[in-house]
Amino acid sequence: MATRACCSDKKLPVNKQMTCNFSFKLTATDGAARTGKITTAHGIVPTPAFMPVGTQGAIKGVHHDDVRAAGADIILANTYHLMLRPTAERVAALGGLHEFMHWPLPILTDSGGYQVMSLAPLRKVAETGVTFRSHLDGAMLELTPERAVEVQILLGADIAMQLDECVRLPAEPADIARAMRLSLRWAERGKRAFEKAPAGGALFGIVQGGDDERLREESARALTTLGFHGYAIGGLAVGESEDVMLRVVAATAPALPADHPRYLMGVGTPSDILKAIARGIDMFDCVLPTRNGRHGLAFTRFGPINLRNARHADDPRPLDPDAGDRGYSRAYLHHLVKANEMLGAILLSQANVGYYQGLMQGIRAAIAAGEFEDFRCRTLEQLSQGDIAPLSDVACP
Amino acid sequence: MATRACCSDKKLPVNKQMTCNFSFKLTATDGAARTGKITTAHGIVPTPAFMPVGTQGAIKGVHHDDVRAAGADIILANTYHLMLRPTAERVAALGGLHEFMHWPLPILTDSGGYQVMSLAPLRKVAETGVTFRSHLDGAMLELTPERAVEVQILLGADIAMQLDECVRLPAEPADIARAMRLSLRWAERGKRAFEKAPAGGALFGIVQGGDDERLREESARALTTLGFHGYAIGGLAVGESEDVMLRVVAATAPALPADHPRYLMGVGTPSDILKAIARGIDMFDCVLPTRNGRHGLAFTRFGPINLRNARHADDPRPLDPDAGDRGYSRAYLHHLVKANEMLGAILLSQANVGYYQGLMQGIRAAIAAGEFEDFRCRTLEQLSQGDIAPLSDVACP
């Protein structure tokens, strides 16, 4: 089942094939769920993988060392933020993002398209690319498919993403179709730019098409024909219900080549992840572990816990004896959260990053053992025991 | 030179002597500078010692493990904050502060008097004690010398402080004298309360007297006659110049018994510490390492550095190759500080805690080698090379 994704690109003459350090090997399947190994110049990523989000070149509130210790094999960084500050050119001059932030393992960078949509106070999408106003200093900037690739190569990403146009849902069918087709043309331009660049690494295409399965399939097949190292499903977790998200994932994943990684962008809750893996997804990213940690919420095997809740004030038990939270009591964590002590945000963010990585380890082991369905059901049932409403219907912000 | 401080209290009949786990042994002197060892139930503290401040039971922005790794042998926690939240009774029910916050080494708690002065929106000092309004919920509370001791015993402090009245400088001579004499009467009541309590640990008296050397000497001699495990100089770093502070320290330290530790409360900058040690001080606490870290300031052997400064944006050098800052570049730290990333505050707070502990280690080694004067001069000269004005005239907030 092994494929060196980049080198299997038969459509290019040998001298035009990208020199890359990327391969994906499928190691087991269990229903639609899969385990695999992504190999990059900075190390191996077992899949299904969850990527903690280091938006500005740092995982919020958690030391890189603790992110590694939690078991993360890869992180995500945001092109939009880093191109504005400190700028891709500066990061490149300082040796690239791995060197800059002292993270020696693989890094995936997004293309900036999603943040342009969600953060820039003004933006104009044209065939060429997207012009937008920086949310930091108001400067007008342009991101083209070529520039998005250039920026990500300057950053030194192991996995770069094509520039796409991401439409917030619900949206008009015509707008969804237009954005999907534009994203496809940008995918082709992005790929050409990537092939011209001397750097190694991988480029993923991004499936768009909103909540329309037909458009999603069309997008997936067209991207597969173009040929990428991996394929992402974008434009989800942008306002739709969990049902819609899972329906789109279920329709899209089978339309993508089995021997390449599939990445569901911006997802999600533990429940979302379990359900998406059951539909053939290999990679995830989400800010939930750290964002919730900063807000006093802890993920545990027995569901999410709100540490602000007064009922934890006298509770000597740790969040979870196995969850890598250094065994601090719920009473202490409650105190830190109530007192707005940074250490509360730090410990909970770290515990949540640990929880997510532990979940992924459990998932990988279950798939390898052919017991994923049992694992998924048992875990979903356990998760409903937390002291706050299950997050299963909350799309990842 | 060894003295078991608590057990050498000759004024009490043997059956009234406090059962305690505290001793101080002077190990070397170099001029007025001294090294020693404080032994407590939770471990040994080599002096001169700097205590990072864990106001609410946490060092702001730094994992306990990293505080220990930085070399801290003792921390300070604030009675005022902890008695308000989560309350001393709750901490006691959860096993005491060491267990609550997972800090296994010695803890000194202040008496709450200073925070009542600086934080409570309303306070009334009477012979009985001080009545004040909680800055958290507006509740009216009373702190008496007896209650201050009780709270600190509930917290499980290795070293407790008597309740004192701290006067902000400049102040009227009559008010300074009144507060000093009241603090002396409270010292006596605090000592009686401490002797009645079953707990071990130590109680320190606090010298008051503002900027008046004569009053300071009177306070020091009266406290010595009462007999405490150690002696603090309070009511400094409250608005006076460095000159005044050092003048008072120089007049007070010789009036305190040589075989007991001397603690200069709330001080200070590296320069303050070096100069106070040259005048016979053994213990310090200050929020500067963590507060400055949160504000983008790094202490280094070559003076303080303001990481917000744009001139660090492209600088690949770490703060100090030996300073335990994990080698992150100034460029990365600058980026984190500018981007308000929590990791910036974390890394700089940690580096600053490490700097202070490294400074104390250097000081102890220099005194032991009889080279303190040379060390002090060399260090003060190095410190003037930072990119911001030396902090030597800044009293510790």
Summary keywords:
disordered N terminus, 14 helices, 3-stranded antiparallel beta sheet, alpha/beta, 397 residues, 17% strand, globular, 39% helix, homodimer
How are the SSEs placed, and which strands pair?
Two copies of one chain form a homodimer.
Chain A: E1 22-30, E2 33-40, E3 43-47, E4 49-52, H1 64-69, E5 75-77, H2 79-84, H3 88-93, H4 97-101, E6 107-109, H5 113-119, E7 123-125, E8 130-133, E9 140-143, H6 145-155, E10 159-161, H7 173-196, E11 202-207, H8 213-226, E12 230-233, H9 242-252, E13 262-264, H10 270-277, E14 283-286, H11 288-294, E15 297-298, E16 305-306, H12 330-338, H13 342-368, H14 372-383
Parallel strand pairs in A: 4-14, 5-6, 6-10, 10-11, 11-12, 12-13, 13-14
Antiparallel strand pairs in A: 1-2, 2-3, 7-8, 8-9, 15-16
Helix pairs in contact in A: 6-7, 7-8, 8-9, 10-14, 11-13, 12-13, 13-14
Describe this structure in words.
The structure is a homodimer of 397-residue chains. By secondary structure, the first copy, chain A, is of the alpha/beta class. In chain A, 39% of the residues lie in helices and 17% in strands. Chain A is built from 14 helices and 16 strands. In chain A, the strands form four sheets. In chain A, strands 4-14-13-12-11-10-6-5 form an eight-stranded parallel beta sheet.
Oligomer: homodimer
Helix percentage range of chain A: 25-40%
Q: Major β-sheet of chain A, in short?
A: 8 strands, parallel
- SS element count, helices of chain A: 14
Tell me the greatest interface: A-B, 39 and 39 residues
**Mass-distribution shape of chain A:** globular
Strand residues, percent of chain A: 15-25%
With strands numbered from the N-terminus, the spatial order across the biggest sheet of chain A is 4-14-13-12-11-10-6-5
- Mean pLDDT figure of chain A: 91
Question: How big is the Rg of chain A?
Answer: 20 Å
